[in-house]
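Run log, item B.
One chain of 107 residues. Sequence copied directly from the ordering sheet:
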Amino acid sequence: GVKCNNSGNGNQCVTDRCVIAGNLDCSGNSGGCVVPETTVGGNVTLNNNAGPGASVTDGAIGGNVTMTNNSSGTVTGDFIGGNLKCNGNGGSTLQSNNVVAGTTSCN
Protein backbone atom coordinates (compact mmCIF):
# COMPACT_ATOMS: atom_id res chain seq x y z
CA GLY A 1 0.00 0.00 0.00
CA VAL A 2 0.85 3.68 -0.05
CA LYS A 3 0.84 6.14 2.85
CA CYS A 4 1.02 9.90 2.46
CA ASN A 5 0.53 11.21 5.98
CA ASN A 6 1.22 14.32 8.01
CA SER A 7 2.91 16.49 5.40
CA GLY A 8 3.30 19.99 6.80
CA ASN A 9 4.06 23.43 5.40
CA GLY A 10 1.00 23.38 3.17
CA ASN A 11 2.28 20.40 1.18
CA GLN A 12 -0.34 18.46 -0.73
CA CYS A 13 -0.45 14.72 -1.32
CA VAL A 14 -1.38 13.92 -4.93
CA THR A 15 -1.70 10.53 -6.61
CA ASP A 16 -2.35 11.38 -10.25
CA ARG A 17 -3.18 8.48 -12.57
CA CYS A 18 -1.44 5.97 -10.30
CA VAL A 19 -2.08 2.25 -9.91
CA ILE A 20 -1.82 1.06 -6.29
CA ALA A 21 -2.23 -2.67 -5.66
CA GLY A 22 -2.96 -2.38 -1.93
CA ASN A 23 -4.45 0.35 0.24
CA LEU A 24 -4.02 4.13 0.07
CA ASP A 25 -3.90 6.09 3.34
CA CYS A 26 -3.73 9.85 2.94
CA SER A 27 -4.31 11.55 6.29
CA GLY A 28 -3.30 14.62 8.26
CA ASN A 29 -1.89 16.67 5.37
CA SER A 30 -1.93 20.45 5.76
CA GLY A 31 -2.27 20.97 1.99
CA GLY A 32 -4.97 18.38 1.45
CA CYS A 33 -5.08 15.11 -0.46
CA VAL A 34 -6.04 14.79 -4.12
CA VAL A 35 -6.64 11.39 -5.75
CA PRO A 36 -7.56 11.89 -9.44
CA GLU A 37 -7.89 9.06 -11.98
CA THR A 38 -6.25 6.53 -9.67
CA THR A 39 -6.79 2.77 -9.44
CA VAL A 40 -6.54 1.29 -5.94
CA GLY A 41 -6.94 -2.44 -5.37
CA GLY A 42 -7.76 -2.08 -1.68
CA ASN A 43 -9.22 0.63 0.53
CA VAL A 44 -8.79 4.41 0.35
CA THR A 45 -8.68 6.37 3.62
CA LEU A 46 -8.61 10.18 3.61
CA ASN A 47 -8.90 11.67 7.10
CA ASN A 48 -8.10 15.02 8.71
CA ASN A 49 -6.72 16.78 5.63
CA ALA A 50 -6.72 20.59 5.68
CA GLY A 51 -6.24 23.13 2.89
CA PRO A 52 -8.46 22.17 -0.03
CA GLY A 53 -9.46 19.01 1.85
CA ALA A 54 -9.78 15.64 0.16
CA SER A 55 -10.99 14.47 -3.22
CA VAL A 56 -11.28 11.16 -5.06
CA THR A 57 -12.31 11.65 -8.68
CA ASP A 58 -12.70 9.45 -11.76
CA GLY A 59 -11.04 6.45 -10.12
CA ALA A 60 -11.53 2.74 -9.60
CA ILE A 61 -11.37 1.57 -5.98
CA GLY A 62 -11.58 -2.15 -5.22
CA GLY A 63 -12.43 -1.74 -1.54
CA ASN A 64 -13.94 0.94 0.68
CA VAL A 65 -13.55 4.71 0.51
CA THR A 66 -13.54 6.46 3.91
CA MET A 67 -13.35 10.26 3.88
CA THR A 68 -13.83 11.86 7.30
CA ASN A 69 -13.04 15.12 9.09
CA ASN A 70 -11.42 16.89 6.12
CA SER A 71 -11.80 20.62 5.47
CA SER A 72 -13.93 19.57 2.47
CA GLY A 73 -14.71 16.35 0.64
CA THR A 74 -15.36 15.46 -3.00
CA VAL A 75 -16.10 11.99 -4.39
CA THR A 76 -17.18 12.06 -8.04
CA GLY A 77 -17.10 9.72 -11.01
CA ASP A 78 -15.69 6.73 -9.13
CA PHE A 79 -16.27 2.99 -9.28
CA ILE A 80 -16.15 1.74 -5.67
CA GLY A 81 -16.20 -1.99 -5.03
CA GLY A 82 -16.94 -1.63 -1.31
CA ASN A 83 -18.64 1.02 0.81
CA LEU A 84 -18.46 4.81 0.62
CA LYS A 85 -18.34 6.69 3.93
CA CYS A 86 -17.88 10.46 3.89
CA ASN A 87 -18.79 12.16 7.15
CA GLY A 88 -17.65 15.13 9.20
CA ASN A 89 -16.11 17.03 6.29
CA GLY A 90 -16.32 20.83 6.22
CA GLY A 91 -19.27 22.13 4.26
CA SER A 92 -21.22 19.44 2.48
CA THR A 93 -19.50 16.50 0.85
CA LEU A 94 -19.90 16.66 -2.91
CA GLN A 95 -20.68 13.23 -4.28
CA SER A 96 -22.03 12.47 -7.73
CA ASN A 97 -21.81 10.01 -10.61
CA ASN A 98 -20.33 7.23 -8.46
CA VAL A 99 -21.04 3.52 -8.81
CA VAL A 100 -20.89 2.00 -5.31
CA ALA A 101 -21.27 -1.77 -4.88
CA GLY A 102 -21.77 -1.52 -1.11
CA THR A 103 -23.52 1.09 1.02
CA THR A 104 -23.15 4.87 0.90
CA SER A 105 -23.14 6.91 4.11
CA CYS A 106 -22.40 10.59 3.53
CA ASN A 107 -23.52 13.81 5.15
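Observations after the first pass:
- The mean pLDDT is 93.
- The chain has one domain: 2-106.
Flagged for discussion on Thursday.
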